[in-house]
């Protein structure tokens, strides 16, 4: 009878636990949760491993060759136009040279001391190795003839010595590679008068970014070997081929050049 009573009591306790939500047995042996638990060893903290120090960046690789510095040194070392031309032909610092057919140095008579400076070679100039031999060059010949000049009594060069692809305007970097040679070129010619053909020549020779219509027809000065040389900006022949109505403006500039040449030669 006592067994049945104990069984009945146990079942009633289990039913109460099930109704309370305890529907899962977690162990066969009873656990006295009020008994004193044995002390457990403290969990040792994980050692803090310092992160490896960031490595210093690798030493910078050597800078690319100083092409502008090389150009300056080559130009300064040139004591004659022949030496300057050889230095220019041996200079590989300007990327334009890689695609050009030839180096375009100059044409005409340097002893005349009448210097015309254009922008850069075009297709015909690249093929022949001479400045202003295409359509624009034919017009330049006529412009010079109008003031009694030709390639025996004037001297012609460009800011850039290699043809830019598709005749585009040279970039500032490309011009910077050529300018030391141009400056030395001017010093060696030691001109009496300089005529700048177009805005690009004015920008790189005189450092002026005004439009050519603002600068043309106005005398400027350029220091050559300690002397201030008169400089006349005028319209580029290629521009005049596109805008023939502006030839009258170029004619006025050329008349001023002719008078200046006469005055400096008679001084």
Keywords:
267 residues, Uracil-DNA Glycosylase, subunit E, 6-stranded mixed beta sheet
Give the structure's gist in a few sentences.
This protein is of the alpha/beta class.
Q: So how many helices?
A: 11
- Stated plainly, the CATH topology is called Uracil-DNA Glycosylase, subunit E
| pLDDT averaged residue by residue | 85
Radius of gyration: 43 Å
Q: List segments where confidence is low: pLDDT < 50 over at least 5 consecutive residues.
A: 52-64
- Provide the CATH superfamily: Uracil-DNA glycosylase-like domain
CATH architecture tag = 3-Layer(aba) Sandwich
Describe this structure as you would to a colleague:
The chain has one domain (67-266): Uracil-DNA Glycosylase, subunit E (3-Layer(aba) Sandwich), CATH 3.40.470. Mean pLDDT is 85; it is low at 52-64. It is globular, with a radius of gyration of 43 Å. Strands 1-3-2-4-6-5 form a 6-stranded mixed sheet, sandwiched between helices. Strand 5 and strand 6 form a beta hairpin. With 267 residues, the chain is of the alpha/beta class. The protein contains 11 helices and 6 strands.
Q: How are the SSEs placed, and which strands pair?
A:
Elements lengths: L1 H18 L47 H11 L3 H10 L5 H4 L7 E2 L5 E5 L4 H6 L6 H11 L9 E4 L13 H18 L3 E5 L1 H8 L5 H4 L4 E5 L2 E8 L2 H6 L4 H20 L1
Parallel strand pairs: 2-3, 2-4, 4-6
Antiparallel strand pairs: 1-3, 5-6
